[in-house]
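input
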Amino acid sequence: MQAAIPYIMRNQHFWLSAGRCMFWEEQRSLIVSDLHFGKTGHFRKSGVAVPQAIYKEDLQRLMEQIQYFRPGSLVIVGDLFHSEANRELELFKRWREQFGDLRIELVKGNHDILHEDWYREAGIRLNQENLLMGDFGFIHDISLTEDLSHKEATYFFSGHIHPGIRIDGVAKQSLCFPCFYFGKNYAVLPAFSKFTGVALIQPSAGENVFALVPADQRRRQPGNIIQIQ
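output
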């Protein structure tokens, strides 16, 4: 199991996982964003030879996180699926049957275009705009909200942009990693799917960023999460 580190905010305890997700201890909720399930099938349907193993690996990683944290609910901050139904979504339905007691809350993302009946049949509660839980809110695209400066009572978690951070090394070398970003009024979660790019962010003073360093199988080193600032 990859590393997880604690992050306390508003007297609530979160665990940031190198597996590209976050566990909210008090609510027993596993929080993820931008899984884009079905994306590899969408590309293959368009004639692009993308191996299905990528999708199966993502499902396996999600199962490992659920088995490790044992949440009562799974909160998905948008883009659970990538496009219209394909064979990979049927695989998801079979995967879902293994976790029949797990409540799944989906905040609708721009890629979540399936008919509402599909989500209901899969045991997924669809939230059209946002989801509020205590002092925290969940919304897929933070840019679609109104001015947050007057909403300090609610701290939002979002996704959509697939945030990444560039780390400079010696000899003018640099590497880019997906990351968690925590600003004053909202956070942006990393994309759970590895079949995505990243949008580089430029954090300001007082903001927290955690880079997700992937595992090195050749050196038998697990993935890690590192606070940048």
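quick obs: The chain has four helices and 16 strands.
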